[in-house]
Design a protein that fits this description.
Layout lengths: L1 H20 L2 E8 L10 E4 L5 E3 L5 E5 L5 E6 L6 E5 L3 E8 L16 H17 L4 E14 L2 E15 L3 E11 L22 E4 L2 E4 L6 H4 E11 L2 E10 L7 E8 L4 E9 L9 E13 L7 E2 L1 E12 L2 E2 L3 E14 L5 H4 L6 E4 L20
Parallel strand pairs: 1-7, 10-22
Antiparallel strand pairs: 1-4, 2-3, 2-5, 5-6, 8-9, 8-21, 9-10, 11-12, 13-14, 14-15, 15-16, 16-17, 17-18, 17-19, 19-20, 19-21
């Protein structure tokens, strides 16, 4: 056992060293005043579509294709920070200052300001979506299953993802790795079934769920303004999402809207009462979180997906401990409105069209979202 642990630590060290030779920066992002870590903060190479998010512990790792490079650190409620890097760096501690400026009074017409905000969000989306034909992006996904005794399994994948307005989504998984108790064929980490909460409808457990920016969203949802924050000099509206019906598959929770652009910045939603998973899942309590960025352009695209919660699985006469499910995905390096390969959309019907597996346990696997201490 001791030899195994020492071997693992050696391999982990090799992975980290290999990552640094690939021109990466890594470290932790914290609140400048309290020292608390900032989870799921956006990190982006300036004037590019390449970026990542921090882990739940505020840690990050980002590959820099070419130095020097300016990296932008952004988190709602904090001043955006730009840092120039001329060489790879590790063990960084980046501090963001909470924003303390006073906001001017915001005036809305009508009784419910949240409705006015969402009407503008839906209208703006219809305008820029008309010009969005296709995109290509790089994705990294990690799934973590655990129970009361600790982590049970970890699966990871890197992939190239494609989306076309008429032909849909395709994913080419380029690398995978998993803990030893999982076979490669049982590694289901990937971006194929991850939701985009900017879509009109979201597929979940076989249901077509009405999204919060659906053209008819106001028929199915009430919205309530719960607070006003800011990011840099821009107002951010926090809204509560309240279902109008318990019969239609919908979500509930909270969303954040960038006032100047009337665009979704972040969602934190849970499935409504009418959504259920098929047996053997008896119950579930999952929260879906996602952030969006326009990378300086007009298209608002997801930068991540985070799914966390508990799943209750049961069979007749068999008791199984609840499973704690955690999934994180980072999506970056978008290319917009480019031709899609015929090989992906010819006779292919599945979402995952090809898997190029490598023996990733013996190679440097790029960790887009750093492992937690427990992992």
């Amino acid at each position: 056992m001791i030899k195994f642990i020492l071997s693992f630590l050696l391999l982990f060290s090799i992975f980290n060293q290999a990552g640094l030779t690939q021109n990466s920066i890594s470290g932790i992002l914290v609140d400048a005043e309290s020292g608390e870590t900032l989870p799921a903060a956006n990190i982006q190479i300036k004037d590019t579509f390449r970026g990542t998010i921090t882990s739940n512990e505020g840690r990050f790792e980002l590959t820099i294709p070419e130095f020097p490079a300016i990296v932008v650190f952004r988190f709602i409620g904090y001043e955006t920070l730009e840092v120039e890097f001329t060489e790879p760096k590790s063990n960084l501690e980046i501090s963001l200052n909470p924003v303390s400026i006073e906001l001017e009074e915001v005036i809305f017409t009508g009784e419910n300001p949240a409705i006015s905000i969402m009407e503008r969000v839906i209208l703006r989306k219809q305008i820029w979506r008309e010009d969005l034909e296709s995109w290509k992006a790089e994705s990294y996904t990690r799934q973590n299953l655990s129970n009361d005794d600790g982590i049970v399994s970890i699966t990871e994948s890197s992939s190239i993802t494609w989306w076309h307005r008429d032909m849909g989504f395709r994913e080419v998984i380029t690398d995978q790795r998993q803990t030893n108790n999982i076979l490669p064929g049982q590694n289901f980490a990937g971006s194929s079934y991850l939701p985009n909460f900017y879509d009109d409808e979201i597929s979940l457990a076989g249901f077509r769920v009405i999204g919060v920016t659906h053209p008819n969203a106001l028929r199915y949802y009430d919205f309530r303004l719960t607070g006003i924050r800011h990011i840099d000099d821009n107002i951010v509206y926090d809204l509560e999402v309240i279902p109008k019906t318990r019969l239609q598959p919908v979500f509930e929770g909270n969303i954040s809207v960038l006032g100047e652009e009337y665009a979704l910045l972040e969602v934190n939603l849970v499935p409504g009462e009418s959504i259920f998973f098929p047996p053997p899942i008896r119950d579930f309590d999952l929260t879906y979180s996602q952030q969006f960025s326009n990378y300086g352009g007009s298209f608002w695209l997801p930068t991540d997906v985070r799914i966390n919660g508990m799943i209750d699985i049961g069979f007749v006469g068999l008791s199984i401990p609840n499973i704690i499910f955690s999934q994180s995905a980072s999506i970056s390096n978008y290319e917009i409105n480019i031709p899609v390969p015929d090989s992906l959309y010819g006779r292919q019907t599945g979402l995952i069209v090809r898997i190029n597996r490598s023996d990733s346990l013996n190679t440097a696997f790029p960790e887009r979202i750093p492992l937690t201490q427990a992992e």
